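Dear colleagues,

For the upcoming journal club I promised to circulate an example of a predicted protein-ligand complex. I picked one with magnesium ion because it came up in last month's discussion. The inputs are reproduced below in full, followed by the predicted structure.
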Amino acid sequence: NYLRHVESMSQLPSGAGKISQLNAVVLGESLASEDNDLIFPSKEFSGQALISSPQQYMEMHKRSMDDPAGFWSDIASEFYWKQKWGDQVFSENLDVRKGPISIEWFKGGITNICYNCLDKNVEAGLGDKTAIYWEGNELGVDASLTYSELLQQVCQLANYLKDNGVKKGDAVVIYLPMLMELPIAMLACARIGAVHSVVFAGFSADSLAQRIIDCKPKVILTCNAVKRGPKTINLKAIVDAALDQSSKDGVSVGICLTYDNSLATTRENTKWLNGRDVWWQDVISQYPTSCEVEWVDAEDPLFLLYTSGSTGKPKGVLHTTGGYMIYTATTFKYAFDYKSTDVYWCTADCGWITGHSYVTYGPMLNGATVVVFEGAPNYPDSGRCWDIVDKYKVSIFYTAPTLVRSLMRDDDMYVTRHSRKSLRVLGSVGEPINPSAWRWFFNVVGDSRCPISDTWWQTETGGFMITPLPGAWPQKPGSATFPFFGVQPVIVDEKGIEIEGECSGYLCVKGSWPGAFRTLFGDHERYETTYFKPFAGYYFSGDGCSRDKDGYYWLTGRVDDVINVSGHRIGTAEVESALVLHPQCAEAAVVGIEHEVKGQGIYAFVTLLEGVPYSEELRKSLVLMVRNQIGAFAAPDRIHWAPGLPKTRSGKIMRRILRKIASRQLEELGDISTLADPSVVDQLIALADV
Ligand code: ATP
Ligand code: MG
């Protein structure tokens, strides 16, 4: 359907509009009157874009669907393969009724992703190009590495690991903050065929131990401490506790290679276990700066990454080498309209999938210059991001809605006092971005000039699945627009029947794509049960989604967040976006509660702007906002004031906890230790009857 729509849309003028306060785009004609929310890329932008029109997208998408093998092998041929893959580019079974789920891409092809990220670029003459600009926590503390220097450092660590018995297929746990050593560690593992498992360095000793016990690494890489904002975090102490715990469970890790981060602490202040603990700087420099590559099969494992755990026990998502390589490189290139002159900054930590695919692998496979930021985005003040953008002339800035919303709460002056002229593309990931946050990001941060790539994807998908191509599509604030090449999203109903056209339901994917995860580590059955059994024949994302009359996809949040009020299915994201539109509302989180009449009622946690007092009047006007925006059926039954919301360390709202608070099941809050700030839970409980 969207293809048909595109044909009519492409008749429209592609001159961009600076969107006014009212967000009306002056489009002339047809669509403008129906839908004043379309925002076109400017002529200049489209003119220089890799994909510059809906037609061009359509042609490529059609080819990727009609001939996936040809489409992806053409792209794969641009990378280095020691030996080409076999006759079959891919094979798949995504239907549990036909046997075990299996996905393979480029099987028999022999390659190495580290080689493609580094050696290949150096050989192509990019040796002196900056690979990483590293910005420390404190103003004025920075460093950088060229592609040649990065390669040398990666080789030294790779040689150390090899020398200490790490072989192809062995697991290595990495528990590091955003120092350059983090991407270096990932690449060094990949170089020798070891399987890295990065654990976000904000996780507790318990969570780290759980992951160590699951994947049994030979070595753990960490540092003694790190400064984040005004706080110092003693990572080594957390690692010590985790290693104690895991050895009690029979998993002992032989080596703890510890980077001495003298900006945060001293060696004297670091507890040490002789025999196990080794200072990084003491050993690495003794190793040669070149290291032969371990050539691996495209289907050999590259890494394990445990999902953030906003729901249930963490799952070890396993990605393999070849397909992941091609997919992250290609999605990065097109979704951000990457050019070799770009300076790219993704604010995600390498502890999350975003940091794997779009701090490290995707950008480096393209030979990009990447900014790696150690600190907190609001330290020393809310202008830090734009300070960094100006300092490094960042042209592509990729972040999360939670950061956008938190910066929006502060004065625009923090943004506007910086030039930001270098910016050309913005990106968002992690949650649906509320249209009002989208507009602020677009209008204020991007000066109404930079398209926003709102990329929908998951740890499991390896790379972008539904995403704008910034030069091709007119955008709608809050919609992730259309599927990437090779991706066939489908929306199904409760029975698993595909629904066509304008609709809403469960978001699934038909057919495989190169970046798909191949299993859950050590638990293929859970892989099948969680993702392929709910709707036989499809990969089930766990997310709710709707498709509008123009074929645009709108993510509505996790399916377990969809609320059924008197038979109306309402996505939490919709109600939250309506609340956030209120001028005094900074953030909102909505959950369902039992309701005698309606089945489920809507319970909204609302964070107000700094300094706004709670009042009944305000409560009423918030409810009115939702009534006006969505309809009376979606009006919240209860507004609960929330000075802060319980969030995971990746910034996502943990609704599991909010549901318990809303239904006053306070004894059943479960594990709250993985929250970024567990104290918000007490604050919320205290305000339950206000
Ligand atoms: P867990 O699976 O452990 O509960 P998680 O799903 O939050 O954690 P990720 O894989 O990092 O872990 O996040 C993927 C999820 O984030 C998606 O399923 C979706 O719910 C949400 N998401 C990511 N990007 C977007 C986006 N652009 N728009 C809407 N939702 C998004
Ligand atoms: Mg998930």
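Two points we might discuss: The pocket of adenosine-5'-triphosphate (ligand 1) is lined by residues 307-311, 352-353, 428-432, 454-456, 458-459, 480, 541-543, 555, 558, 652 (CB under 6 Å). Confidence is low (pLDDT under 50) at residues 1-35.

See you all on Thursday,
B. R.
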